[in-house]
Amino acid sequence: TFWLTWAKQQKLLINDYEQIEQALRSFNLAEVQRLLVSQRIPKAQQVAALKALNSRHAAGALALSELGDEHPASTRDQLRQQALEELKAYPQGMQVGWQQRDFGGVVYSGVKLTAAHAINDRWYARVDAEHGDLKIENRGTFNFAKEKYLQLALNRQLHNGSLDLSINHSNSDIKSRTGASIARNWQITQKSSLSLGYDWQDRTDESGFMYVLGQKNSLWLRGNQQMTARDSLSWGVEKNDYATRYNEKLGSGKAFELQLAHTIFFEHPTWLVKAGFDYQKNNLNDKTLTRLPVNPADKTAFNTNSLLSEKYKYAYLGTTLQRGTPGFLNRTEPQYTWILDAVIGRQWPENKMTYSLSAGIGTQVFGDDELAFTFGYQSAPKSQLDSQSGGTIGVSYSARFGR
Fold first, then answer.
1. H-run or E-run covering 24
2. What are the beta bridge partners of residue 238?
3. Given 37, 51, 320, 325, which is the most exposed site by the fewest CB atoms within 10 A?
4. Is 2 left (phi over 0), alpha (psi -120 to 50) or beta?
5. Beta-strand runs (E) in 285-349
C-alpha cells in the first residue's frame, strides 16, 4: 500500500496486476469493477474480482473454464483453488443417503435426497427431502411418529452480499407444519461477514421430541471475522419463541454462541483447533400439553419440560483433522476424503464433563461421484431422557453436475 502510494506520487507506471491486488486488499469495489471491465488483468485476478463483486457463480465458472494447459502450473493451481472455494460455498449436484440421529434415547432415522444447482450468475437453488420416523428407545422401543420433510431454498447474489429465502413443509402423522426463512448476508470486508435472519415455524433440534413435535420462530444475528491468516472468530445471538405443532406456546428464550478457531495445517490434511462457548436461557410455560400424543415411554402426557430445558451452557475445546469433507454434496479432493473430529467440554446445569467424537470416510466412484460413510458419538447430547448418550450414523452417494 505504501509502495503504491509512493509510486503514484512519483508518477511511476503501475501495472494492472498491482492495481487490482491493491483494490482487492482495500475492498475498493469501484476500482475492482473498472479494472475488471478493462479485461487487462490475468484470469486468476478476474476470478477474484468477480468474487469481490459477488458474482460468485460466474467466478466459479470462469475458474473452471480456465484450467487448461494454456496457463502455467502456478496459475492453474490458483484457478483450481478458486474453483474449489466456490464449489464448497455453492455445491452443485445430487445426493441420496440414509441417516440416523440419536438424541439420547430419542432416535430419528430415514432416507434423504438433496439436489442443488446454480440457475444463473445470480440465483442458486437447493432442494432437500427426507422420509423418516422417530422411535423412543427407553425401556423398550416404541414407534412414535413418521414424517416427510421437504425444503426449497434460494440464494440471490447481491452487490454486497446475498439474500437467502426458503420454505419447508413437514407432513407428519402427528400434525403437519409449514415454515419459512429469510436471511440477509453482508460481506463487510474481505475478512468479515454478517448475517441477519428470521425463521418462522421452523424445525428445531433442542431435543429429540422438539425435532418432531415442536417448532420455533427465531430472530438471529451471526458474524464471522478472519482475524489473521490462521485465526477466525465466529459468533451468533438468537431470540426464540417455541411452540408445539399444534401452536401451543411453550415459552421464549435467548441463545448465544462463540467460537475461536486456529488453523495449524491449511491442507493435505487440514488441521485446526477450536474453543467455544454455547449459552441458552429459556422462560418456559409450566403446563401439560394435552393436544400431543401420550409419551409411549411412560404412558403419561407431555409437559413443557419434556421438550425443552430452561438452561444450557457448554464450554469446550476441540480439534479437527480432515482431507475434504465426507458426505458433502461435492467431493473436493481426489480419490478419497476423510475426517476426524474430537471435542471435550463441560456442560451445565449438570456440571459434568462431556465429549464427542465423529469420523467419516469417502471414496471416489464413477468419476466425480463419492460414496461416503459417517459416524458420530456424543456422551451427553441435548436431550431430556436421563442424559443418555447419542450420536449419528449415515451413508450417502453424491454425484456432481453443472458447470
1. helix 16-26
2. 220, 255
3. 37
4. alpha
5. 311-323, 336-348
pLDDT in tens, 4-53: 665 655 565 566 667 777 777 777 777 777 777 777 777 888 888 888 77
Distances in Å between the alpha carbon of 333 and those of 328, 337, 363, 369? 11, 6, 10, 11
Q: Are 149 and 170 in contact (CB under 8 A)?
A: yes
CA dihedral defined by 359, 375, 223, 313, rounded to 10 degrees? -110
Query: Average pLDDT, whole number, for the chain?
Result: 87
Counting Cα atoms < 13 Å in the Cβ hemisphere of 277 gives 4
Per the structure block, which three cell numbers stand in for 201?
415455524
Contact yes or no for 206/382 (Cβ under 8 A): yes
**Residue 80 dihedral angles phi and psi, to the nearest 5°:** -65, -40
- The fraction of the chain above a pLDDT of 70, given in percent, is 92
The three cell numbers of residue 318 are 476441540
Closest CA to 98 of 87, 109, 108, 107: 109
What secondary structure letter does DSSP report for 86?
Answer: H
Query: How far is residue 291's CA from residue 244's CA, in Å, rounded to a whole number?
Result: 9
Query: What pTM does this model have?
Result: 0.87
| Helices and strands, counts by H and E, the chain | 8, 16
Amino acid at the residue 4: L
